[in-house]
Records
---
Amino acid sequence: MHQILEMIENKEYKKLHQKLQTMKPADIAEILHNLSDKNFLLVFRLLPKDFAIEVFSSMDSNEQAKLSKLINIDELRELVKELNFDDKIDFLEEIPAQLVKRILQNCQEQERTLINQFLNYPEYSAGSLMTIEFVDLKKEMTVKEAIDHIRKTGFKKETIYTCYVIDAFRKLEGIISLKDIILADKNKKIKDLMEKDFISITTTEDQEEIAEIFKKYDLLAVPVVDLENRLVGIITVDDIIDVIEEENTEDFHKMAALQPTEKEYINSEVFSLVKQRLPWLAILMISATFTGSIIEKFESVLSKVTALTVFMPMLMGTGGNAGSQSSTLVIRSIALGEVECEDILKILWKEFRVSLLVGVSLAIVNFARIFFIENYSILIALAVSITLFITIILAEMIGGALPILAKLLRLDPAIMASPVLTTILDTLVLVTYFSISKIILNI
Amino acid sequence: MHQILEMIENKEYKKLHQKLQTMKPADIAEILHNLSDKNFLLVFRLLPKDFAIEVFSSMDSNEQAKLSKLINIDELRELVKELNFDDKIDFLEEIPAQLVKRILQNCQEQERTLINQFLNYPEYSAGSLMTIEFVDLKKEMTVKEAIDHIRKTGFKKETIYTCYVIDAFRKLEGIISLKDIILADKNKKIKDLMEKDFISITTTEDQEEIAEIFKKYDLLAVPVVDLENRLVGIITVDDIIDVIEEENTEDFHKMAALQPTEKEYINSEVFSLVKQRLPWLAILMISATFTGSIIEKFESVLSKVTALTVFMPMLMGTGGNAGSQSSTLVIRSIALGEVECEDILKILWKEFRVSLLVGVSLAIVNFARIFFIENYSILIALAVSITLFITIILAEMIGGALPILAKLLRLDPAIMASPVLTTILDTLVLVTYFSISKIILNI
């Protein structure tokens, strides 16, 4: 990085040009990310054409958009033309429709139709993830013929490691790995080697489901077919890794009460960050009115024993933390497919036993602290510790059950995490606290 | 599933045997997961031997451990012998040392040494992820010779799609994809085709870093070398997908104040779940003593205007939620490599502007609610709303900065999420609240 900047500053363009060619495209994309617009363009134009295309493919969509504003339309057209088909679609999906139109102006009618068809697949569907650059074989081919066919057509394919056997109507009849082809007798027929019992998905399949399939079966690529079982594309594992990270990011965000977005945090505008945060914060703030009205209702209790206020934050905080622990465990287990809705009783029973042990332990520590160290009356220590015990049981059982209930209601379990749960628990904890205090302290 | 159970019940073992052979190993593993011990063993023994090995590889470690208790040592030995090398190591890593010893008893000296060497690599390191089943080529080979070599040795390799060129001392000189070999002229030499400027990692590299490399460069496999640059193994992308999910689970757990564990929630013992939760809950509970002592200090303020207590939970809750939003955004950005430590000022400036907008909006809504709807005095409404505004600013700036500070201190940013942050914020919010109330209400 430092070296590159130095060469730019000293205008050692020839040296820079040579240096860039020894680097990996992904590393150059990373460097471009950190350059000013002017230097960004300068470095990009120093790249040999083939290499520039690879670097462009390695950039994230923000950088690609930035570059497309810096270069002129002819350069852009040239660049897009050479991209792999799925990278091309990814890029065109992200830029304004007007620009897409201008880029595709000089395209052949047939390709333009195809691109527009792909741009119409719903976001996050198999259709928008797949590429058309796969190797297709015929079942009557021999291994030798298949290899010759791969050698002739393989250059611009996304992968040649899984090949797809289709009939005259493009119906998918089987799949075969290059490994099986290479290791087989040269005179054998593809139809005798191919896997007929293969996994395929349709164009409308959701990306989360597709990622599950890749994880379960350890696949490198999966074929995508239309409703008539005609092969329309393939999805490769490198794109699925991105999907997995996207889905995880979405869960992290939902669990923190953020509206999901695809934009990188560091490149987001202030206003879009506000939009991402404000709705849930406002909803949760207004829901917290409940806790206020409970305190109002029990104001007489609090005014008689003001010491009770001292332990309110600790009780609510511990309840929130305990609930967040169990809900996170269950939310994550659902996401990884380890837990199903029918496990709800098993979860409640497990959480009940765990919360008994955790509750008793914390209540004892807490009692000791309040009574022996802080020298409050034994009745206050008792009221607080019993509340804490009940709080833990409520928090862990509700925390464990809510994500499953969300799933049963076809909501995303992730929204039942800490913020929503804490708001519910705060109310319950306060009611428990004041009711128990009233009884024990005889107010 | 239902069908399988029916066949077991009706003792239609022949039909079951046939049915199983039409299924995918991963699907059978899933079914076994849900069977009783007796049926588990019955179904497993109905599988043809080769197929049983594939099913075993598809099982998770809990199921593998279960099976290893159900079958006798000879059967187990037979099974382990046939596993892929990396699956073998994964399995042996998970079972008691005593059992490992018994399984390896009849092994050849050389293999036992190799296995023990692999078992000694630190968990989560490249050494424990890699396999030795790769294709090695010599640089003097022609393409034709290389293909012949692959055909001869490729059967039991984890992948043949990336081949490794080594010298007589097993030093790694280059890598070459099967695609490049297949598409090249048959008489060309491997040394003229191979990539000399390749990415490799050492045996001690952490799995999180390795996953980053796969994501950045879209790799299918990466070579692992020792300190003398001798090739000792390779890591393939299917294992990396598991690593990515493991690392994400770890982050989810840490962010909810859970001690990380590799065990599935639903199969965990109650006691181990307690161990996972109790330490942080206790630490956070004791830290909450701070909030208590602040309330004690300001007890005179509270006893004069008991209405102030009503808004405590709302203020602390909103502070916690706002902090959790910004810390989650930054923690996730760090995990995805989008944010570096040097971005801290950029983050603070961004968070400052976001929190101004969010804070003003929420403060206005809040003021309206307290003054117009709930009919509290204008001074109380003012005190609460100003506190809310300051709370949001503190929460978002601290929430944004803490994960970066953690990273600077070489701690995991994920521990700075909601629970830890909320405990810090609770204290700050209460001090702000009481100080501002004292001034505005002139107590």
---
Amino acid sequence: MNDELTLYVAAFVDELVKAGVRHAVISPGSRSTPLAIGMAEHREMNIHLHIDERSAAFFALGMAKAERKPVALLCTSGTAVANYFPAIVEAYYSRVPLIVLTADRPHELRDVGAPQAIDQFHIFGKYAKWFVEMALPESSDEMLRYARVMAARAAAVATLAPQGPVHLNFPLREPLVPVITEQTWEQVKAEAPSCIEVTIGQKTLADEQFRQLYEQLSHIEKGWIVCGDLDKPGFAEAVTGLAETFGYPILADPLSQLRSGIHAKDWIIECYDAILKDETIAQHLLPEVVIRFGAMPVSKPLSLTLKRDPSIMQIVVDGGDGWREPTYMASRMVYCEEMEFCKRLVQYGSERGVSEWAKLWRDVNELARKVLLRAKHEDSLFEGKVFIELAELLPEQSLLFVGNSMPIRDADTFFMVNDKQIRVLANRGANGIDGVVSSALGASAVAEPLVLVIGDLSFYHDLNGLLAAKLHQLNATIIVMNNNGGGIFSFLPQANYRTHFETLFGTPTNLRFEHVVRMYDGQYYEATTWNEFREYVQQSVHNKGLHVIELCTSREENVGKHRFLWNIVSQEIAQFLAKRGK
Amino acid sequence: MNDELTLYVAAFVDELVKAGVRHAVISPGSRSTPLAIGMAEHREMNIHLHIDERSAAFFALGMAKAERKPVALLCTSGTAVANYFPAIVEAYYSRVPLIVLTADRPHELRDVGAPQAIDQFHIFGKYAKWFVEMALPESSDEMLRYARVMAARAAAVATLAPQGPVHLNFPLREPLVPVITEQTWEQVKAEAPSCIEVTIGQKTLADEQFRQLYEQLSHIEKGWIVCGDLDKPGFAEAVTGLAETFGYPILADPLSQLRSGIHAKDWIIECYDAILKDETIAQHLLPEVVIRFGAMPVSKPLSLTLKRDPSIMQIVVDGGDGWREPTYMASRMVYCEEMEFCKRLVQYGSERGVSEWAKLWRDVNELARKVLLRAKHEDSLFEGKVFIELAELLPEQSLLFVGNSMPIRDADTFFMVNDKQIRVLANRGANGIDGVVSSALGASAVAEPLVLVIGDLSFYHDLNGLLAAKLHQLNATIIVMNNNGGGIFSFLPQANYRTHFETLFGTPTNLRFEHVVRMYDGQYYEATTWNEFREYVQQSVHNKGLHVIELCTSREENVGKHRFLWNIVSQEIAQFLAKRGK
């Protein structure tokens, strides 16, 4: 009864589970039947169906991010595979482990015009860390062991730093329906037991290298620690230890996971974007050394500041073997696991305490924060205020997912340091506005409560993602900042080009999302006041199901209010520095 | 004022227009600003905005299909590009000319973690017929000429057989806003006039090769001409001429464009799928020779028949240099433009007239058609009946777009020969259920009236595509066959696997599309009877705007009724053959 297929698939799936893969996102298809049934029949594998493969892949990405573990993806042959591509690109750049399993026609049905047969070899190009054309199903001892080892290796390669997607392509012949019963699992465990365990070490430096680096830094008073997107449990404690040792303030991107949490916040500077907007002010606050962790932060003023001055010694620490250094000003690349780097470096001396330099940064940060928090008293639906409100409204242990384009910039400006345990995630590998709904919902399947803040174009782009909430009864709150189009362009030079501005850049869609939210059985709210907003958020995060809260805002007003606040920040800091200089 | 950029972009766009590219589908973005403005400012270029790049690319594909001309696509850097991939794959396999223009970060912002920068080199792999990394904008005479030649060449390469997508990647530096005025066009026409004209010849055989082939065929009485997906004006007349010369019936797939039109229909056989389902019957009706044009037809019984008997001489004619021969039974591949092949071959002899063989095929086809048309009297919402109704309801010059999975199979079975001028299109390159709404709407932008028949999963997959109808006031009728899930699996062996059948294969979504149709300002109708269906279709095709007609059908009933009719066809033909054999 189709034994070759059954045992081969069972061995593969069983080993995936052994390797710690407990979630698979599956899209329906015929060719993928063997693996779909294999995963559905395995007791320890949780399967999540999703019709649209593009959304499915982002759903898996969000889940893998939230879980910090590889998640499997499965689809049939043809353009289904190509629909995975945007999420694969994002996973590659944001270092998220995915195990992509694609069914394929067998060799004799390839490149001969057979239906739904496309060339899937290396279809994701460099974006798959590892591509394997799997052998046709066989059940010899050797090939069952092969199936197991490939599953274990897929999980290992996806997990090795830098984490990322791997792609296994399965040629499958008819008949496609395996006969998997309880006995199958026992049989496969007996005949082809799990055989390999994978242990992954960490990249570190030699004692001497750490000592030299410590010596060098110990003579420099003015330093910054800059932390971009980095989500490793324990990093907050490690990097604040580093800050205390050298007396360097930490410029912390919202995705550094340093603005929230139970670690000490004394060293965290969150308003550097607003502070550094004014070039003259930035000149007064320049460091001599920068130690940078994680991806390049969202802040453009920070990038420009680092780019302007070649005399700043910039040390980029990357545990993932990358070259995330768009300023071309780095003087040193250090390939070392980030926590290891922090913990080892502090062992060579004692804490330096709060210097004048550190105090100066704390003062200007406090000043900037006070100004920005004035937005709290704004009655109109100013987009930036959402993050000020959320810092208060979000329950402990929340996951805050932030959309690209404007929301992540507003989070950068307005999501201030707080003592809650809030994880902040975003798709910052390629910064796309695509797949954000699905990524957030994927995260919500393994981490609750989840709140997503997203713009209207990005929400529209992945409306299909909402189906997962309906199919899998997910609990999530989505806040849509609807400024009817591409808000970010009002901040860019394109805004001065009037002729076709609305057609090419503003791109208003005039969509009323209430309809589509209803279709997916979600609760829809339009918040027209901040009181309503607060009420709806509280109601949503404490109740089951999908909740969508829409705020209709104005692109023009929005850019004006941002600029107004940023100007005050610059003015007040300039005054402060002038006084201090006297 | 940014002259280098302005002139370079203007020269490129102007030459695209000169090369016959009159439509560009643009998605909003910052990096793509120069080209977007260049295209928007050119009087002879029609621009179509679409937010979701996946839908945008399918929209361009549909438009290029309907126009039979290359259409340009433009998006910004990052995952936007990756979203084009499914449509690029489809365009490659279905031989549709697309000119894909992607904006990219300049060299110094690549692979260094700069935002929205991904590696776009050869990102579509083999699916782009031609990839070019364009030079940075310069306005020397030489580089303006370069820009012009690249545009002309892109259109040429996309158009050369086999037609397909080409990809030009533009590195662009800030400032990104060109200053294009009426003077710009005059200046660019004066300083860098259009310089190259492209003439494309056709592949043909030598006289001697045609003569030999004619000789060979003239001795064979039992032949089929098999026509799959092929959409060339004039082919119908050419191939029916061939049929008359040799007395071979034409087995015509719905996408062969042979079932409708003003050409002679005497030779067209449209019920071969139902006829050949019974292997014993097929044995009685086997040809000695098959001349095959276009893609492999949809019909599985036809493929199986061709595959079973190696003694059938199968000649595959392909004007596009492909190898569309999944049966492995072809004895001859002929690389020659299809119409040329037909027209030249008939010159060597006179018409053979209607032989016994041809008459036999006409008789069984008539018989099968009569049985299948009994579905016309079906009161319940049987899916197959839709195409019987449409053959009557569709106005002259309609474009009928058919979704994949079940609709194309039902069109194959139930869309009978008629004398209207109806073009039938579908995405049969990779047979995906993705992007079908957008492909149809793209076609509707250049060809009306358009009617799309699509299943619920496929409709859901590309709901985003509906935005184009709203943004661009398109006129289109969409008929959604809503059987709440994947109807095709009920016809496959998976149907016998009960445990997780609905979860993995049936995949009901329980979506009520009325909501989403409203969001896109469409008219929604649910047809619960055939009278209503007829009324709604007539209303829709004669009125402006987007119209969606939903038929809620049953997967189980559907498979039963199909099988019932097919069985009668087999029985009646078996009786007919038995009588005839006496």
